[in-house]
Sequence to fold (346 residues):
Amino acid sequence: MIGAGNIGKVHIDALRNLPNVEVVSICSRTNMEERAKALNIASFYTDYKEMINQENLDSVHICTTNDTHFEMAEYAIEHNLHVVLEKPMTKTLAEAKKLYDLVKDINLVHEVHFHNRFYPANQEIKRNIKKAGKLNLIYGNYLQDWMTPKDQFNWRATKEASGVTRVIHDVGTHFFDLIEYVSGHKVVEVFAELKTIYDERNGVLIDTEDIGVVIFKTDKGALGNVLISQSVPGIKNELKTVYVGENATFSWDGKSVNESHILYYDKDTEIIKTSSIETLKNGIMYDVDGFFDSFKETLRGVYHKIENREFKQEFADFSDGLHSMMIVEAIYQSYVKKDWVKLNEL
Fold:
């Protein structure tokens, strides 16, 4: 495990709930003896290269700032390790392309961690989406409030650590990966506007956005839009998705990971409730009640894939991660150019 922050700890806890995985070593920049002791991990490092060189590892999880993802993943791949990479895949599109080129022709498992795929509500919509008929509109939002105060500063607020965007990189990538996974559509063109609320936070000049509004087109003819922000007072974490077809509308309001809705023109709304998913496609159902369980099931799939390479995974890999980074780059270029940008022209 590289990175001992909050997300790294969630990865560790999830892995410890799987029968075929052992967390053997952890690496972070500071306070490693104390952190490792608190996490009950005997082996610890402050240099990830030293950890990879000295430990007999099968895989590495990278749960660090965006600007470090590329170099760490590249080093792990060069040392024949499977890689689990927190989203976004990289800081830049160029880095994502390089990582994808490294893994596309070799027999390593690689994952970009988009856990919303593994909520029962979203998997149920995916299974039933054909009932909607041809999709003409896909829309939603991802809203949070933790960056609302002017004195709130985080490494994501500067391009140096985050990349060309902030909220698009951080939570917008979740939205786009989810709607593509569920609908079977791919975003091919975007038009975007970004807004920074405060030019300065705690004496640091801010060069990333607080609000993103994106219109998009898909490869199957649907139009869509999304509102993304982490500065909406009172909305702690709200991911909503809506898929509008010729026959019906599927909706997930994010309030429950187990409940979604089908809406009709001429009959009552149906509530779909499901509490478990068939992670390994082998008849065994696993309960998913929230955020932690979605991590566990994502990683269950990853490590099953490592042991069974023919397994057709549901988790996002570096191909999906590269596509996600193309969306990020297209959104930023659209904002700069004030025009539509096609992903295939990047």
Q: What stands out?
A: The chain has ten helices and 18 strands. Residues 130 and 325 are 28 Å apart (CA to CA). The radius of gyration is 20 Å. The chain has a mean pLDDT of 97.
